[in-house]
Protein: Gel scht
Organism: Duganella alba
Amino acid sequence: MKIIGLGLAAAVVWSFVVPAYAQQQEQAISVAETSPAVDTVSVTARRFHMEPIEFLGYEYSYPLSNGDVVKFSRKVLHYYVTIKGLPPVEIFPTAVDQFVTAGGAKLLFTEDGDALTIDHYEAIQAASGLPVATVQGAPK
C-alpha cells in the first residue's frame, strides 16, 4: 500500500513539474527567436610588456626622410621618443617591434629593426610642443 501511495504521489508531482518545465523552455525559445542578433563584440586589447633589456636594441637615433632625427630613450620602465631635441614623448610597446603614443602615433620597426615607419608623425610633433602649422608635409 505504501508503494502504491508513493507511486501515486510521484505521478501527481510529475504531472505538475513536466508541464511547467515545458512551458519555461517554450518561453526561452520564443525569447531567443524574437531577440535581435548582436552585431558587435567588444574585445579588450591585450597588453604587451617589454623589459628594459629588450628595449636596448631601439635606443638609438634614427634620421628621417624629412631631415628630422628621432631618438629613442628609456627612463626606468618608461620609453620615450624625442624629435629635434624637443621634450620627449612617452611611447608604449604594443608588440616586439611596435610602439604607440597616447596621441595615436604608431612607430613600427621593419627589416629586422633597420627601417622605421611612423604613422601620424604630426601627433609626436604636437605632443613635443611643436606648433601644428610646421607639421604640414611631414612623412607618415
